[in-house]
Amino acid sequence: MTHSHASAMPYFAPGTYIGLFGGSFDPPHAGHRLVSLSVMRALGLDYICWLVSPQNPLKNHAPDNMTKRLAACQSMAAHPRLMVSDVEARLGTQYAVDTVRQLKARHPQVHFIWLMGSDNFASLQHWKQWQQFMQEVPVAIYPRPDSALKVNNSQAGQVFAQQRVAANQAIDFKHFKAPAWIMLDGVRSHLSSSALRQNDANKQH
């Protein structure tokens, strides 16, 4: 399969299993790469696609210039199976539920799995149409420090308790139909973009 690593609108081959990793990536860091490769292995996915968002609706600060963030992501990803895309900017979607619906409509033969940190899942009820989002795409959750335990008690965790897939079924998870979610074991990264931004800001003073 020919694939342009830097393609803005990535080519998703029919029948492939693609992990969608959304975020502002402001800045991208080694934790993003570590989690991506770890999840790709655990779930047996073909690719992970970083969806570099124009603006996170739940964050107040304006992210760094899109072109700069895309270039930084290309440099950080540096792996043939990690794609970087500004597809949300091109589709004009701001919310995950809209992005997933558009991608599914455009690529009906592709199997998408959404990746998110346990901190995001713990507050999923703040996302636009969060219950419909869970019906659209299987969700794989990687543990983040201090929030892994909150997943079980979260609103999403309770509403979709029956749809949880055991961590030891990770390699089969890509065959599950939504709604389905799994809390993966393994790599925890203490790196966060907000902490790195703060660190950069401190260095500039």
Keywords:
seven-stranded parallel sheet, alpha/beta, 205 residues, Rossmann fold, disordered N terminus
Secondary-structure topology with pairs:
Elements: E1 17-23, H1 30-43, E2 47-52, H2 66-77, E3 82-85, H3 87-91, H4 96-106, E4 111-117, H5 118-122, H6 130-136, E5 139-142, H7 150-153, H8 155-159, E6 164-165, E7 181-183, H9 193-203
Parallel strand pairs: 1-2, 1-4, 2-3, 4-5, 5-7, 6-7
Helix pairs in contact: 4-6
Largest beta-sheet characterization: 7 strands, parallel
- Decide which structural class fits the backbone: alpha/beta
Assign the CATH architecture: 3-Layer(aba) Sandwich
CATH homologous superfamily name? HUPs
Strand content: 15-25%
Q: Overall mean pLDDT score? A: 86
Span of the ends, CA to CA: 48 Å
CATH fold naming = Rossmann fold
Short synopsis of the structure:
With 205 residues, this protein is an alpha/beta fold.
Describe this structure as you would to a colleague:
The chain has 205 residues and is an alpha/beta fold. It has a single domain (17-203), classed as HUPs (Rossmann fold), CATH 3.40.50.620. The protein has 9 helices and 7 strands; from the N terminus they run E-H-E-H-E-H-H-E-H-H-E-H-H-E-E-H. It has helices at residues 30-43, 66-77, 87-91, 96-106, 118-122, 130-136, 150-153, 155-159, 193-203, and strands at 17-23, 47-52, 82-85, 111-117, 139-142, 164-165, 181-183. The protein has a 7-stranded parallel sheet with strand order 3-2-1-4-5-7-6, sandwiched between helices. Strand 1, helix 1 (30-43) and strand 2 (47-52) form a beta-alpha-beta unit. It is globular. It starts with 16 loop residues before the first strand and ends with a helix.
